[in-house]
Amino acid sequence: MGITSAWSITAHEDDVIASLVPRVQPLIERHRESPQAQRAWQAWCADPLPDHRSWRDLPLGSERGEAVNAFLRLTSEIPLNELHCCDDCGFHLYDIWEAFAEAVPPYIAVFTKDYALSALFHAIGPRRAAQLPGWCGDFLLTSDEVRRTLPAVEEALTFTPQERVAAEDQVWLDYHEGEEPVLDGPLRAWRQAASTGLGLFGANVHIY
């Protein structure tokens, strides 16, 4: 039985963001500071991966194959899953998702046996990915931080027509009809949150 992942970006008032800091920020920092994650990030930055369609042909155990596996582990590790199943402490991630500010529709990408964040990071490459706040799709930002980081996010997720075609070619996700593309949803949410004075919570989690 496969996993189902969700990458969500939801907008909230600053008091909600502040209430999440003690639970969320330590988990993000623990993942960011882990030696394995740092090694994988630095290796990807030094040597970005080739066309994803070539990965299946890499010899098992080869240096390039191990680089692909390290990248996929980096972008599919789920530190915030501890928030998703916290029955003992009375905290549920679903409650936060349901409490989003209605001025900004959430961006939620749900995929079975796949990760939207992995596809996005591969498609945009390490230079652009490094401009996104937080760590590997997880972030917690006040309204001031959303406004302050918007120029970097716009630079990371704005493309010339040629760059857009190239990025789309490396997004391997199969979308449902009407589903917001991973190249569009995060920037749309950021712009709307910045214009309405809201904070943002990004979470990459397993839902099944």
Question: What tags apply to this protein structure?
Answer:
208 residues, alpha+beta, 4-stranded antiparallel β-sheet, 4 strands, 12% strand
Report on the structure:
The chain is an alpha+beta fold. Helix content is 51%, strand content 12%. The protein has helices spanning 14-33, 35-46, 63-76, 81-84, 93-98, 116-129, 143-157, 161-169, 185-196, and strands at residues 4-12, 107-112, 139-141, 199-206. It has a four-stranded antiparallel β-sheet with strand order 2-1-4-3, with helices on both faces. The longest helix is centred in the N-terminal third of the chain and has 20 residues, at 14-33. It starts with a strand and ends with a strand. The model has no long low-confidence stretch (mean pLDDT 93).
Task: Report a brief summary of the structure.
This protein is α+β, with helices and mostly antiparallel strands and 208 residues long. The chain has helices at residues 14-33, 35-46, 63-76, 81-84, 93-98, 116-129, 143-157, 161-169, 185-196, and strands spanning 4-12, 107-112, 139-141, 199-206.
